Amino acid sequence: MTPEMHDQNRKLRLWEPHINAFVELCPNDVSREGPLAGLRVGVKDVIDVADVPTRNGSETCRDAAPAVRDAPVVARLRDAGAQIFGKTVTTEFAFTDPTDCRNPYDQSRSPGGSSSGSGAAVAAGLADIALGTQTAGSLCRPAAYCGCVGLKPTFGVLPTVGVTSLAPSFDTVGIIAGSVARAQQAFDVLGSLVIPRMSDTPEVVISGLWQTRARPDGDTLAGLSGASRALTELGADVTEAPLTADVASIVLAHRTVMNHEAFVAHGAMLTDGRSRFLKPKFLTGLRSGAAVSPDKVEEAKALLIAEKRKFWVGLEGVDVVLTLPVPEGAPLFDDTTGFQDWLTPWTVFGGPLICLPWGLDRLGRPRSVMLAAPPGRDAYLLATAAKLERAAPRLPPPQLPKN
Question: Among residues 402, 372, 341, 335, which one has the least CA distance to residue 155?
């Protein structure tokens, strides 16, 4: 065993009892040659890893057979030399019922969801890269709450073959990593689109928030202001303005479509006896999806398409949007995986998103800011994030509990 492997295994022994980031380890997988050689990867347990069961965070999949093959996103990382280290905790079928996974910065707080274990594993240094998914806010929240970089690519850029579906209209595979450079490495391997980066620095930036009842706390708002100043110092023309969209209608329509598509994928569990094993929020979602009429689903889809078109037309000429993924740091551990209504519209709009750690708040919780760009501008967004990251306040690593 190399000194690096010994150190990683020691970290795992020390951290895992406190944060419960993994559901299964793959210790027999070894690194190979390639651009990701020596890097450990955690894989959200809705994504297939060969010879390991995909249990989807659900008792209904407790006896699942091992997957026959890697999902393509896993196979590409493995072929690039990465070590597939383990399956990370997910909420049930990537919905919103919380898990027993904890935030490394404060074990009394949530790591977010649904890619809970992926965020916690990277934050604690147990994985260099972790795969997650986002259907509403499931990748960006764990990245933000756990102080990681979270990249949700343009919808459809990365394949979802071998990924348990929640709602195909929105399901997106993404990356959680400790830095923009590491996220870039993984994204390049996973098959990013070759897209012109325009210039090295965004020329036109909108800095703003959705107009909803939720308001950011002072620490989080200060982080947004600091990131805005940093982009200005990089030479961007930054305009502060509210983001305009009918967020309430978008969230409602998104939920209608998501629940309906979840019912289409998993509704058999309502009638074959498995429903008694389901967690309450997912069960409610399936029942809601079963009850909605086809006309209502089509109406909701039409609204989302119209809102997406209107939003990007309204931002024509804007290179990047600077905003916040969540109003404040990680919530206390209870029956929630965190606030997602600010992220749902961005998922609907389909463009790439990247969350960046921005120091700690006064409660010791990681702060995060987020950059968004129109669909297809993933490479440009990553280049911008790399520059902004250099101006970010230092984020100290989480500390092991003393007892």
Answer: 372
Helix axis angle, 218-233 relative to 378-389, nearest 10°? 100
Residues designated catalytic: 44, 114, 138
Residue 202 has pLDDT above 90, yes or no: no
* β-strands 320-323, 204-207 pairing: parallel
- Alpha-carbon span 369 to 207, nearest angstrom: 11
* CA-to-CA dists, residue 285 to 184, 250, 256, 325, angstroms: 35, 17, 9, 24
Give the number of residues written for the chain. Answer: 403
pLDDT digits (tens, 9 = 90+) for 22-55: 999 997 777 689 999 999 999 999 999 999 999 9
- The Cα 274–Cα 56 span in angstroms is 14
Closest CA to 78 of 10, 124, 19, 30: 30
Q: What is the pLDDT of residue 191?
A: 81
Nearest-CA neighbor of 310 among 369, 354, 250? 250
Contacts of 324 by beta carbon, 8 Å cutoff, 6+ apart: 209, 216, 220, 221, 223, 224, 342, 368, 369, 370
- The CA distances from residue 153 to 150, 223, 338, 356, in Å, are 10, 23, 21, 14
Side-chain half-sphere CA neighbours of 215 within 13 A: 3
Mean pLDDT of all residues belonging to the chain? 95
**What's the whole-number mean pLDDT along residues 11-20?**
96
- What are the tens digits of pLDDT across the range 352-388? 999 999 999 999 999 999 999 999 999 999 999 999 9
**Exposed/middle/buried for 63, CB within 10 Å: 0-12, 13-18, 19+?**
exposed
The answer to whether residues 3 and 156 touch, using CB atoms and an 8 Å cutoff, is no
Angle at 253 between CA 248 and CA 258, to 5 degrees: 125
How many CB atoms are closer than 10 A to CB 49?
26
